[in-house]
Amino acid sequence: MSKPAEFYQRDREWHPPASSQDYKTSVARSPQNALISLEQTVSEITGPRFGHGDVTEMDRDLIHNYAKPGESAIGERIIVHGRVLDENARPVPNTLVEIWQANAGGRYRHKKDAYLAPIDPNFGGCGRTITDENGYYYFRTVKPGAYPWRNWVNNWRPAHIHVSVFGTAFAQRLITQLYFEGDPLIAKCPIVNTIPDQAARGQLIAALDMNASVPLDSIAYKFDIVLRGRRSTLFENRMEGN
After folding, report:
1. DSSP the chain
2. pLDDT at 188 over 90
3. Cα 58 to Cα 1: distance, rounded to the nearest angstrom
4. Fewest 10 Å CB contacts: which of 12, 79, 92, 222?
5. pTM of the full structure
6. Which of 77, 83, 160, 201 is catalytic?
7. CB under 8 Å to 40, separation ≥6 — which residues?
8. Catalytic residue, candidates 23, 66, 137, 147
């Protein structure tokens, strides 16, 4: 039996181009010259150092972690869960996973978000957790709403959650977006449509998971995160793979 390779060659057709005419802001912020490699410094390849006691059970519960005592966030309650895996489907334990999102009306708790949906006073929109020995993580939250954005005349972002995975060094932070199975806005999103491969787009869609749902409480969605390899999850801050 052959031993799995430690690293795989990146698939450059798997990730989208940095510039896309239909995704207007990518045109101005995409590189205009050839990329260059910079040698990493010690500060980039060491750390971070944090105690696991700094991350509590409440940090993964966005329904209550910003709410007043006795109150909770408004919206459709959901569970988002899955595993963080390497390129050979092995679990990645003790990894910091962070999320942030809009509220159920599609508005972020940010001073520059001027969308007309109201702010939920009991929803902060962010959470964090650490994967267990099997690479497993989960969050309780509310399903975010769609919202309009100034791309073309009538573009709407599908419901989505931003996901960050932090490695063992400051330079090892990967960021992606999670969408929800069955959302018709996914196929119409100019950002999603920059991804050339249908299978790659599919890896950003969390699957409905009724087995993990809580009756009369929360619907569950499963979202596994593959850190690298030929078929890694698409990360927006690492557009060309490994």
Report:
1. -PPPPSS----TTTSPPS-BTTBHHHHHHS-SS-----PPPHHHHS-----GGGS-GGGGBTTTTTSPTT----S-EEEEEEEEE-TTS-B--S-EEEEEE--TTS--SSTT---SSPP-TT---EEEEE--TTSEEEEEEEPPPPEEESSSTTEEEPSEEEEEEE-SSTT-EEEEEEEETT-TTGGG-TTGGG---HHHHHTTEEEE-GGG-BTTTBEEEE--EE-SSTTPPPBTTBTT--
2. yes
3. 45
4. 12
5. 0.87
6. 160
7. 171
8. 147
Residue 65: CB partners within 8 Å, gap ≥ 6? 58, 59, 124, 127
> Is there a catalytic annotation at residue 147?
yes
Q: Is 81 a catalytic residue?
A: no
- Among 5-9, 78-82, 114-118, 208-212, the minimum mean pLDDT is found in 5-9
**pLDDT 10s digits, 128-184:** 999 999 999 999 999 999 999 988 889 999 999 999 998 877 677 899 999 999 999
Which amino acid is present at 140?
A: R
Q: Which of 23, 66, 108, 221 is catalytic?
A: 108
Query: What residues does 138 pair with on adjacent strands?
Result: 81
CA 121 to chain centre: 24
The tokens for 29 are 């912020």
108 as an active site residue: the answer is: yes
- 123 close to 142: Cβ distance less than 8 angstroms: yes
